[in-house]
Amino acid sequence: MRLNVSSCVVLSLLLMLGSAPSSLAKKRLEDTQATTGSKRIGFAARQWLVVDLDVQGVTVDRLKLHPPGRVRGLFTKHDEANRAKIAVTNRTDRRIQPSVAIAVFDEEGYLLAAANTGPSLTSLRPGVTSEMDLHFGGVFRHLEDGAFIYLSLEY
After folding, report:
1. Which of 2, 64, 125, 127 has an alpha carbon 20 to 30 Å from 18's alpha carbon atom?
2. How does DSSP classify residue 7?
C-alpha cells in the first residue's frame, strides 16, 4: 500500500489522538456537552410571568408573551404579535451561550404555538442579565387559548 504525505499526516494525527490519555479525551467531551433544563409554568399573555428556572447557575427569570395579533392578509407582518421576551441571568463564572425554547398548550394539552431564541451568536458574561427575543413564526393566532407553557433552557 502506498501512502502520500497528506495520508501520512492524517494517520499520524489519528495515532496520536488514539494514544491520548482517556482523561484528556473525557475532559474534551465534557466541555462540549450542553447543559439543559425545563419547567412548566402557568400561561398569561401581556404580562411578565415569573419563571425561576435555574440550570446550574443560569436562570430564566421571567417571560412576557406579546399580545396575540390578527392575520391581516396572506403574509403576516413580523411585529410584536408573534414574539415574546425572556430574561436570562448568568450566575456562573464563565461565559455562556444560552438558547431558550417555549411551547404553549391549551387546557386539554394541545400544542398551540412554539417559539425559540434561535442559536445564540453572542455570549452572556458572568453576572449579567439579558433579555432575549423569542419568535413564534406564523403559528401564534390561538395564543389566547393557552393554559400552560413548557420552557426549556440550554447552554
Report:
1. 2
2. H
